[in-house]
Design brief:
The complex is a heterodimer of chains A (801) and B (345). With 801 residues, chain A is an alpha+beta fold. Chain A is built from 22 helices and 42 strands. Chain A has six domains: 66 residues, Phenylalanyl-tRNA Synthetase, Chain B, domain 1 (2-Layer Sandwich); 111 residues, OB fold (Dihydrolipoamide Acetyltransferase, E2P) (Beta Barrel), CATH 2.40.50; 202 residues, 3-Layer(bba) Sandwich (Phenylalanyl-tRNA Synthetase, Chain B, domain 3), CATH 3.50.40; 70 residues, Phenylalanyl-tRNA Synthetase, Chain B, domain 1, CATH 3.30.56.10; 204 residues, Bira Bifunctional Protein, Domain 2 (BirA Bifunctional Protein, domain 2); 86 residues, Alpha-Beta Plaits (2-Layer Sandwich). In chain A, 40% of the residues are buried. Helix content of chain B is 41%, strand content 19%. The two termini of chain B are 82 Å apart. Classes of the chains: A alpha+beta (801), B alpha+beta (345).
């Protein structure tokens, strides 16, 4: 909201600089985003009066204006079309800083000779003064402008751009801010006295009000004026509206807007001739009822929307926007002014349902004081009487079914100290609250007061609210800083946190870059994970009103997100990309929140290592990916075995389940070429996916120290010829099982011309060691022979010559 | 005897000539000049000879020994020089690139979260987590924002598709990490001291400073006698750890429905130092945290007596911190996952 300092000054003496006031307001909860100072650079610019206009001797389009500046008269050359003798104007002396009307640049006024006539000074346009972009003519000041005074003293202002928090609708008004400013600076707050003569018949003669929906309209006040003359508002009023960002319309509408800005109470003026049957009915709209609002749009209403109606039809959408049927026009002579209180939720919902919000609805939906309508109504009636003439009907209508009873709140010094952590004396508390308009009475208990809430504050309902008020006034800066001294709660470790951290660190060590991808995705993206482009896995949960199709469904796996990041980054010609994400996937559950499963997904493609000047880098393959899985699991003291599996995203025969114990914890494999194509990948990619919730349940800290043998080890290499169907695991398991064997490493696998067709050759290094003695060659030979015998029996392995 | 000596000498010189490296030289030395060598044995056995023989043989043996020692020293010197030369010949171009070790990076957000959690960990705050898809109740109502509460407009919400007409409770993507406060307080009794990092979501058009998905860290401390002064101390310490000693910290009154009194914590602008610039919107201050004393209504709802217990809560956006620190001017870089961005950190 924008508030003019000049306007504020009507209610409170501002004795501090605008910046200082802005800081005080900000610290106390009303944030000032910006202070725009008008007239900051108006040095050497004064109010003048045109006392003579003459022709320029050498130019038809220029004239000579003689300006009275109080102590002197100066004649200058002027090209403006609107020079009128008697008008008050802004006159700039030589040396004044102005904005060039054509270029918009800041210039300093110099004495010039224009077509042979010396001109020392200038009559200014609004643009030249930096007030607006108007440059068609000179700015004409109100007749009461005092000749000779500096313009900054007369017109200078500071416009505060404020962020008002939703709990303080009272601060969506100049008076609300003035109250704050008064409390924060200790200056006195004055509200203008409202009085006017009521000379017309009693208002009941003209209209009555019936509130059919008192739950949605706790109070409805109205006044009426006959014989008003619709015209433009006076300049001072227009200027104030403009300064607050509102467009002047006519004197009636402008007054309702002015009083809304002044008091924070939205008002509405009806053309009385548009109200049929002399009656205002506040009711829910009928299903399908229509109204054309002031913006010219026909709106279809329903029962959740509150309307202001006459005997026959809706004439306004309550609290949101008036209707065309009773709009104030140039022909209006009698106006009925509405000042009401509406249920905040009803206005909020109505505004959403109609997709229509207004200055009025923005205020009503925050919940306004029920004491405000009458105060604001009287002010508006007075101003309309003054500015539009007319006769005010006797009395006001005040239908008030939702009368407000506000209980005082008890507050003790102990409560203040308990929340703030600093002792504040009772007198200081009382002083702070009274500055804000609260009234305090001592109770029977010592150091306790009964606090009455001022009528304009709707946000105070408990002692904590009062403590904040005290803190605001004494200043948050004056509260000390202390460290928590309370005992620490018992530590309850969350295994998932350490698991996640461990996995992240290992993966980073394995060359993987962590990425974080969006939780929402599209069906299209998810279906790319199947070669047939169909959705795999459980049906994803949908967002009710997605921002876009790309962000419509909660992801059920991390795969798609990661693969599209891979594709995107391949374009930057990285020759080796390894990515992983640890995050949640969302699986639907009937009548419950979705299951949020913690997953790890990693992808790798390109070369095994970066390009290097020595040796050649091979592309990654299945076994590089498997090595990563083995490394990860070994860090968790787990051993995985792989078993060929079917997974639509991956190539059959090149994909496997990762099995720990008896549990399938994940999959690993080469991406299916069709999937790769769908994601527009250029390199063969391998994918690893592990369910961390499952993994976490398998981790058991059973680690035990293994003594290191004091005796030397002996190693033997053997090459075995086996049939192609025999797996590594089968042979490994046999060898590993023998006593004295401490390590079995496959160091070569050969299939080709050197071995018979249908056979392959495995070369193992076997390390033998005893914990009790140095092994002799005979001992090792004996065990090795036993191994070979068993291999021969069980898998038909022969020692390769 | 003398002949043997001469033979020995000529053999020794002969072999020395064939020595090509320092190891062989050492072997040669042991063979001809070592304690067990023939020459030394000969010198030792002089006592068994006649005086005349002893003089002749002894003199000659000493001459041979000296000559061998001199040659040894020369040979050694020569070999050492040769070694130095050959090493020099084989010297490396040390400017050639080293083989880079494949090493990934944690995402900048993860790094920042780790840093935040570790600072609060040091102050006794334990990490807890809550669901990202939440009931409306936890995201709003329990936090003192009943239906149609005006403050709900501060949180543009992504609602989940659900059939509320058939009695399904409304579900949403949490708009802040504050629901975790409620879940923690429902489960445990004071003393409570937790932080809750996690993803949050807003129905929001994205631009350089707005993302629809981002991370927050929530904090909560509840016990007897916890005060606004403790809140100030804790968050002051946090900003000091994160941004350094020289930053100024400002605590001002602000409004969040689930705290009372409410606080906004700002630091003086890292770019301009408080004089006002584009980064801080000319205010000189950069807001980094929202905080306050837990609202008595919130405590009451989870059955913690606000007359006995008090507490403070705070919440902060995570991405903002590295953005300020490294001058990152577009939040969309975080989850755009361009490796050229991520690998910088």
């Amino acid at each position: 909201m924008k508030v003019s300092l000049r306007w504020l000054s009507d209610y409170v003496d501002i004795t501090v600089l605008p910046e200082k006031l802005a800081e005080k307001l900000t610290m106390a909860g009303v944030e000032v985003n910006e202070v725009q100072v008008i007239g900051e650079n108006w040095k050497d610019i004064v109010v003048g009066k045109i006392v003579g206009v003459g022709a320029h001797p050498n130019a038809d389009r220029l004239r000579l204006a003689t300006v009275d500046l109080g102590k002197q008269e100066i004649t200058v050359v002027c090209g403006a079309p609107n020079l009128v003798v008697g008008d008050k104007v802004a006159f700039a002396h030589v040396g004044a800083q102005l904005i060039d009307g054509h270029t918009g640049e800041v210039v300093r006024l110099k004495p010039v000779k224009i077509r042979g006539v010396v001109s020392e000074g200038m009559v200014c346009s609004e643009k030249e003064l930096g007030i607006s972009d108007r440059h068609e003519g000179i700015m004409v000041l109100p007749p009461e402008a005092p000749v000779g005074t500096p313009l900054s003293g007369y017109l200078g202002d500071a416009i505060f751009d404020l962020d008002v928090t939703p709990n303080r609708p009272d601060c969506l008004s100049v008076i609300g801010i003035a109250r704050e400013a008064a409390a924060l600076t200790g200056e006195k707050f004055n509200i203008p006295e409202v009085c006017y003569n009521e000379v017309e018949n009693a208002i009941d003669f003209f209209a009555s009000v019936e509130i059919v929906a008192p739950d949605l309209c706790p109070r409805y006040c109205a006044s009426l004026l006959t014989g008003v003359k619709i015209a433009s508002s006076p300049q001072w009023l227009q200027q104030r509206l403009l300064a607050c960002g509102m467009r002047p319309i006519n004197n009636i509408v402008d007054v309702t807007n002015y009083v809304m800005l002044e008091y924070g109470q939205p008002l509405h003026a009806f053309d009385y001739s548009g109200i049929r049957g002399k009656q205002i009915v506040v009711r829910r709209a009928e299903e399908g009822e229509t109204i054309t609002t002031l913006d010219g749009i026909e709106r279809i209403l329903d029962q959740d929307i509150l309307v202001i109606a006459d005997k026959e039809r809706a004439i306004a959408v309550a609290g949101i926007m008036g209707g065309m049927d009773a709009e104030v026009t140039d022909n209006t002579t009698t106006v009925l002014i509405e000042s009401a209180n509406f249920n905040q939720a009803a206005i909020h919902r109505g505004s959403i349902a109609l997709r229509l919000s207004s200055e009025a609805s923005l205020r009503f939906e925050k919940g306004l004081s029920r004491d405000l309508p009458l105060v604001a109504l009287k002010r508006a009636t007075q101003l309309i009487g003054e500015l539009a003439g007319g006769k005010v009907a006797k009395g006001v209508i005040d239908a008030y079914p939702g009368k407000w009873q506000r209980e005082p709140i008890l507050l003790s010094t102990a409560q203040v100290e308990r929340l703030l952590g600093v002792e504040v004396g009772l007198s200081e508390i009382v002083k702070a609250l009274e500055l804000l308009g609260f009234s305090c009475e001592q109770t029977e208990a010592s150091l306790e007061i009964r606090v009455n809430i001022p009528w304009w504050r709707t946000d105070i309902s408990c002692s904590a609210d009062l403590v904040e008020e005290v803190a605001r006034i004494i200043g948050y800066d004056s509260i000390p800083t202390t460290m928590l001294s309370a005992p620490l709660p018992m530590h309850e470790p969350i295994p998932m946190l350490s698991l996640r951290q461990k996995l992240r660190n290992v993966l980073v060590g394995c060359g993987f870059q962590e990425v974080l991808t969006y939780s929402l995705t599209s069906l299209e993206m998810m279906s790319k994970l199947s070669p047939e482009l169909r959705l795999i896995g459980p049906a994803p949960i949908r967002v009710a009103h997605p921002m876009s199709r790309e962000q419509e469904y909660l992801r059920t796996s991390l795969r798609a997100g990661l693969l599209s990041v891979l594709a995107r980054n391949e374009r930057y010609q990285e020759n080796s990309i390894r990515l992983f994400e640890i995050g949640k996937v969302f699986l639907p559950r009937k009548g419950e929140l979705p299951l949020e499963r913690e997953m790890l997904c990693a992808v790798l493609s390109g070369l095994q290592r970066g390009l290097f000047w020595r040796g050649k880098a091979e592309p990654v393959d299945f076994f590089v990916a498997k090595g990563v899985v083995e490394t990860l699991l070994s860090q968790l003291e787990l051993v995985a075995s792989l078993e060929l599996t079917k997974d639509e995203t991956l190539c059959l025969g090149r994909s496997a389940s990762i099995i720990v114990g008896n549990d399938r914890v994940g999959v690993i494999g080469e991406l299916h070429p069709k999937v790769s194509e769908a994601f527009e990948l250029s390199e063969t990619a391998y994918l690893i996916e592990i369910d961390l919730d499952k993994l976490s349940s398998l981790i058991a800290s059973t680690k035990e120290y293994q003594p290191i043998s004091r005796y030397p080890s002996t190693s033997r290499d053997i090459a075995l010829l086996v049939s192609e169907q025999i797996t590594y695991q089968q042979i490994y398991a046999i060898i590993q099982d023998f006593p004295l064997v401490t390590q079995v490493t496959l160091f070569d696998l050969y299939v080709g011309e050197q071995v018979p067709a249908g056979k392959k050759s495995f070369a193992f290094k076997i390390v033998y060691q005893s914990p009790t003695h140095t092994l002799t060659d005979e001992e090792v030979d004996r065990v090795q022979q036993q191994i070979l015998d068993k291999l021969s029996q069980e898998v038909g392995a022969a020692l390769r010559a | 005897m003398l002949n043997q000596l001469e033979e020995l000498a000529s053999k020794a010189f002969d072999e020395l000539g064939k020595v090509t490296n320092l190891e062989e030289l050492e072997a040669w030395r042991i063979r001809y000049l070592g304690k067990k060598s023939d020459l030394i044995q000969t010198l030792r056995s002089l006592a068994t000879l006649s005086l005349k023989e002893r003089r002749v043989v002894g003199a000659r043996a000493n001459e041979v020994k000296k000559a061998l020692e001199t040659s040894l020293a020369e040979k050694k010197k020569g070999l050492e020089q040769g070694l130095a030369l050959s090493l020099q010949r084989e010297s490396l171009d040390v400017t050639l690139p080293g083989e880079s070790v494949l090493l990934g990076h944690l995402h900048l957000t993860t790094q920042t979260l780790d840093e935040i959690c570790s600072i609060f960990g040091g102050m006794g705050f334990q990490v807890v987590e809550g669901p990202e898809v939440e009931w409306e109740y936890y995201n709003f109502e329990a936090l003192n924002m009943p239906a149609d509460h005006p403050a709900r407009d501060m949180f543009a919400t992504l609602w989940m598709d659900s059939d509320t007409k058939t009695g399904d409770r409304p579900m949403l993507l949490r708009t802040h990490t504050s629901p975790v406060q409620i879940r923690v307080m429902e489960k445990s009794r004071p003393p409570i001291r937790v932080i809750a990092p996690g993803r949050v979501y807003r129905y929001e058009a994205t631009d350089a400073t707005h993302e629809w998905m981002f991370y927050q860290v929530e904090g909560l401390a509840v016990d007897k006698n916890i005060t606004l002064a403790d809140l100030k101390g804790t968050l002051f310490e946090f900003t000091r750890c994160l941004f350094g000693e020289e930053r100024k910290v400002r605590f001002r009154c602000d409004y969040f429905p689930f705290v009372e009194p409410g606080v906004e914590v700002a630091i003086d602008c890292l770019a301009c130092g408080g004089t006002g610039c584009r980064l801080c919107g000319n205010s000189g201050w950069i807001e980094i945290l929202g905080a306050g004393m837990v609202h008595p209504e919130v405590l009451r709802r989870v059955d913690i007596d606000p007359e006995v217990y008090s507490g403070f809560a705070f919440g902060m956006g995570v991405e903002r911190i590295p953005m300020l620190r490294y001058g990152i001017d577009d939040i969309r870089l975080f989850y755009g996952n361009d490796l050229r961005f991520l690998k910088q950190f």
